[in-house]
Design goal:
Layout: H1 3-16, E1 26-27, E2 30-31, E3 40-42, H2 64-70, E4 74-79, E5 82-88, E6 95-102, E7 107-113, H3 122-135
């Protein structure tokens, strides 16, 4: 019972400490760029150094839905060349949006927290973990 007020304060503080990392989806045929906050990574060309992450190889596309689901993600949209998923953090139950876009050369990825400012590297770690499972 003593920990509940502290968890409530942490949740309120996280929500109040910053905005979302931008709405998921496509803009002009590309994944939405990351905002200035450090709680987002994206592989689209032109991403700044603190948000940039390497795209996945084309061969990863076919296995993406299965691997995302196996790692706890929920596929919320899937169409030709686009997959959107939601991952929920275990303790605080925050939602992170993860998207994939297929192009001729690679599978581009974007992972962003919905709330807060910093994610302590969680989105980058998630994408690198998915990459290691997909490239095996």
């Amino acid at each position: 019972m003593r920990g509940i007020p502290l968890l409530s304060l942490l949740a309120v503080g996280a929500c109040a400490s910053g905005g979302s990392a931008g709405a998921p989806g496509m803009a002009e045929g590309r994944l939405t760029p990351c905002p200035d906050s450090p709680n987002c990574v994206v592989s689209e060309p032109g991403a700044d150094e603190k948000h940039a992450i390497k795209a996945f190889p084309l061969a990863a596309w076919e296995r993406l839905p299965q691997v995302v689901a196996a790692e706890g993600g929920e596929i919320v949209q899937q169409s030709d060349g686009y997959i959107a998923a939601v991952f929920t953090t275990k303790i605080m139950r925050y939602k992170d949006d993860v998207e994939f876009r297929l192009d001729d050369a690679a599978v581009h990825v974007r992972s962003a927290s919905r709330v807060g400012y910093s994610d302590l590297g969680a989105n980058r770690k998630r994408i690198e973990s998915l990459r290691s499972l997909l490239v095996e």
